[in-house]
Amino acid sequence: MGDQTRPGRQPRQRPDEFEALYERLRGQAAGGARGALDTLTPDRVRAATAEVRSGRTVTLASPVETRPAPDNPRPAGHRLTSLPEAAADATGLHFATDHFSMDVHGDADSHLDALCHVVYDGTLYGGVPAATVTADGATALSVELARNGIVGRGVLLDIPRVREVPWLEPGDHVSADDLVAAERSQQVRVGEGDLLLVRVGHRRRRNETGPWDAARTRAGLHPTAMEFLAERRVAALGSDSNNDTAPSPTDGVDFPVHVLGIHALGLHLLDYLQFEDLVPLCEQEGRWSFLCVVAPLRLPAATGSPVNPIAIL
């Protein structure tokens, strides 16, 4: 009982409680064919450009990991296919070229989850049959839905900052109360069509203490925090962790936030971002909102994409 009174400790969810929450959120979903991206109207995109004041830009992506680690057993592959030294003694024009491959949905690299990423009870978001995802790729709800970019007002809510800790420990949960407390502390309010970014300090902890098996234990949002996102009608959700806590707080569902976010609300999720470069800029400028540009690769049948989101202050 004592653990549940500490910040980040929330009661476990029974399957019936999760199903009730799922049905409630599905009924509140703000989007249509493109999911919650439909809230990013041209007027909201145009309004978001007013967030640009200093003109400073900063990446929200982690460096791509090419070496095995406890949280990255299948690292990205990168090799040079043509080396400049091979042509060192030759005249004329030569190129250095390379080849790149990635396990997109791993626990180390920054990536975007498409709406076809989550299958729940035999369907994708909006009741689309799971059979639309085949060995040849997804024929519906692929990352191609975001081919024109996700551009809007980004809002960073820094939970460790509010709790006055460097990071949330693995297993801790971000509650809806945490999100509201961060809004008050940072004097910002999340609104319709915003790109909500939630910092738990995962990347800072990894940088300072070394990688660990994040598939088994990590900080993230508690499923009940998704009611906050539904009420505010956000366009997308990103975190410097997986967005989901591990171990899962929901009996019988390993990734409840992914189910609620992608399958029920139609939210594209951004996993394993990094905000360590953004935080000091926000502190210097005294604001936690900015123009945010997310440009996934053109992978028409893919369930996700590596991504390098840019914040423009």
Give the ordered list of helices and strands. Answer: HHEEEEEEEHEHEHEHEHEHEEE
Give the quaternary arrangement of the chains: single chain
- The main sheet orders its strands as 1-15-13-7-9-11-12-4-14
- Overall mean confidence score, pLDDT: 94
Explain what the structure shows.
Helix 1 (15-28) packs parallel to helix 7. The radius of gyration is 20 Å and the shape is globular. The chain contains eight helices and 15 strands. The termini are far apart. Mean pLDDT is 94; it is low at 1-6. It has helices at residues 15-28, 42-48, 159-163, 176-186, 202-209, 226-232, 256-264, 278-285; strands spanning 57-59, 77-82, 97-101, 111-113, 133-134, 137-138, 150-158, 173-174, 195-199, 220-221, 236-239, 268-271, 289-294, 304-306, 310-312. With 313 residues, it is of the alpha/beta class. It has a single domain, classed as Putative cyclase (Glucose Oxidase, domain 1), CATH 3.50.30. It has a nine-stranded mixed beta sheet. It has a two-stranded antiparallel ribbon with strand order 2-3. Strands 5-6 form a two-stranded antiparallel sheet. Helix 7 links the parallel strand 11 (236-239) and strand 12 (268-271). The longest helix has 14 residues, at 15-28.
